[in-house]
Amino acid sequence: MTTEDCYFLGKITQTHGLKGEVILWLDVDEPDLYAEMDSVFLKFGKELVPYFIENIQIRGKKSIAKFEDIDTIEQTESIINKELFLPLDTLPELDDQTSFYYHEIIGFELKSENDGEILGTVSSVYEGSGQDLLAFEFKGKEVLVPISDDIVKTIDREKKQLSVDLPDGLIDLYME
User: Fold this and answer.
1) 7 phi/psi in degrees, rounded to 5
2) What is the side-by-side strand order in the sheet with 109-112?
3) If I label 38, which of 58, 84, 96, 162 is the partner at 20 to 30 A Cα–Cα?
């Protein structure tokens, strides 16, 4: 299993108690969907290593987990700050035309909803505390677009296109 076959779930942030429990920060919209999870992959260098979950308590984005065969605070030290991954095929399928996963839109064309012009291709998605942004190149300049329902209107998975309604003057800001 490689990181290309998986999606980022979150990170182990710290120990919890003395019996091998850890705090997980889950980078997901609905943490409760992961309450029945029985294993995850932890990233060590470039390798993903499976770890089996003995129990997990979902408490919003911060949860408490106990992994099998980790029974002391000393044993948890080797996994603190490790990233958590799950296979892509475990993601719920999105079949509507307005929802998407960030990893899936890399390489999609941005099509202007107003005139049908292809503006560019999504090169990155930047996740921030205030606003997530998608990036594309337009006439040699990187343009950042807020990801919101007002701007990103629909997704066409077959054509690999996102239909967008950009605010007036947004691209001009980058061209100056």
Assistant:
1) -120, 150
2) 141-146, 133-138, 118-126, 109-112, 161-164, 152-156
3) 96
